[in-house]
Amino acid sequence: MRFDIITVLPDLLESPFAHSILQRAQKKGLAEIVVHNLRDYSSNKQKSVDDYQYGGGSGMVMGIEPFANCIEKLLVERKYDEVIFMTPDGKTLNQSMANELSGKENIMILAGHYKGIDQRIRDIFVTREISIGDYVLSGGELPAAVLVDSIVRLLPGVLNDETSALSDSFQGELLDAPVYTRPADWRGHRVPDILLSGHEAAINDWRHEQALERTKQRRPDLLE
Ligand code: ADE
């Protein structure tokens, strides 16, 4: 699966994809993540990408031309299943959205800054607008990284133990049960005996009860 991300801060997106699972996915050839510097598509001498907004108001707006130049170049190279704009007024990302997007081949992601981007970019090119939550960040780069991470870890072969993505919180209707590792006793704080019992069926029952209890306490909305 391929991602093309368009941003004015390509450096910000170097690190999130250069470690751990996302790095391994790229090394294995399961995901390709290409970051494009929007300034390379500005035709003026200063390489600026923003301008004052029509009608007045504070804050600069990212202009149509650099985005259009970059998007149109990419559209010639391959067919995109989605052109996604990261924005707090988009639809909130959830697990089922990540699952759905993990079935696509090519996704383009636009990361905005300043006051926003010219509405015509959204009208003409964007097929989906996604928010990562009801709070405002200073740009779309971190949201783009969150979106890509949520998708790439679902691609077959990316996680060592494929079932571990399937048993994530939100993948079913329940949150995850608590997990423990050695030592079995740390300063008197003991791992629940059941987990040391070796009774697989009883352990599975216990995990299910714990998951249910946690969901009731923390996210009753998921049970409705
Ligand atoms: N850009 C700024 N804040 C954002 C958010 N919460 N989600 C997606 N994109 C954003």
Automatic annotation (TrEMBL):
InterPro entries: Alpha/beta_knot_MTases, tRNA_m1G_MeTrfase_C_sf, tRNA_m1G_MeTrfase_TrmD, tRNA_m1G_MTases_N, tRNA_MeTrfase_TRMD/TRM10. One of its GO terms (biological process) is tRNA N1-guanine methylation. Its EC number is 2.1.1.228. It catalyses: guanosine(37) in tRNA + S-adenosyl-L-methionine = N(1)-methylguanosine(37) in tRNA + S-adenosyl-L-homocysteine + H(+). Homodimer. Belongs to the RNA methyltransferase TrmD family. NCBIfam families: PRK00026.1 (NF000648), trmD (TIGR00088). Specifically methylates guanosine-37 in various tRNAs. This is tRNA (guanine-N(1)-)-methyltransferase. It comes from Daejeonella rubra. The gene is trmD.
